[in-house]
Amino acid sequence: MKKIINILIVIITIIAVGATLILVFGVSIMGNKTDSEYFELKSEIYNRTEDRTMYSYKLDKLAYEMQYKVKIIYTDSIIKYHYYNLPDSTRITDVKFLPKTSQLFFGPFEFKKIKNDVYYNGVFLNKGFDLYELKEPVVDGNGAMLFKENYGLLNIDNAAWGYQYLIFPNDYSDQNLEQEIIDLLKTKNER
User: Fold this and answer.
1) What does the alpha-carbon distance between residue 93 and residue 74 come to, in Å, rounded to a whole number?
2) CA distance between the termini of the chain
3) Which of 4, 74, 159, 168 could staple 46 via S-S, CB 3.0–4.6 A?
4) Going by C-beta distance under 8 Å and a sequence separation of 6 or more, which residues neighbour residue 150?
């Protein structure tokens, strides 16, 4: 009987020491952030509204520019980008992104990621934009688009109709940069 009690004491001691080590290890991995702090941080990063300017190019020439706002809404499984035109409230574009699968939806069309970090520029806080193309190509459909999760769309390509739209932060305009992006996208659309 004493032998059984001694064995039980040893087993309970091992379990208690193991649980303590797991607890200490788990806390050290988590660091100082709790789940609620983590989601607050995500909320600060993604749940925001920004001013943007859309530059519309027709056959490589600037046709017009329009003021937009983009509202970025983060949930646990999807990020929504709601672009709305300030002068004309009927011009609305919605984009949805599923971070776990890197799926991008522009209106009813699904885009797939072709290549990571295709375009960098300090204007966009050194964000590397990924290249997306239609999952199922459509005649006269959109061409290649540059997208980054914490920025949204850098361009909307409708080269089949001769239009290229670039979406920049409001306070920035550089036609050399704009032409650089258009030329990059032309090479991607010619593949």
Assistant:
1) 17
2) 80
3) 74
4) 45, 46, 127
Is the overall model pTM greater than 0.85, yes or no? no
Q: 124 with 178: CB under 8 angstroms?
A: no
Q: How far apart are CA 1 and CA 79, in angstroms?
A: 62
Task: Enumerate the β-bridge partners of residue 110.
Answer: 105
Residue 33 tokens, joined: 């952030």
* Backbone φ and ψ of 122, nearest 5°: -60, -25
Pair 145, 111: CB distance under 8 Å: yes
> What are the pLDDT digits (tens) for 24-68?
655 455 444 444 454 454 555 568 899 999 988 887 788 888 999
What sign does the dihedral 143-144-146-148 (CA atoms) show? positive
The per-residue pLDDT for range 67-111, each reduced to its tens digit, is 999 999 998 889 999 998 888 877 888 999 999 999 999 988 999
CA distance linking residue 132 with residue 169, whole number of Å: 21
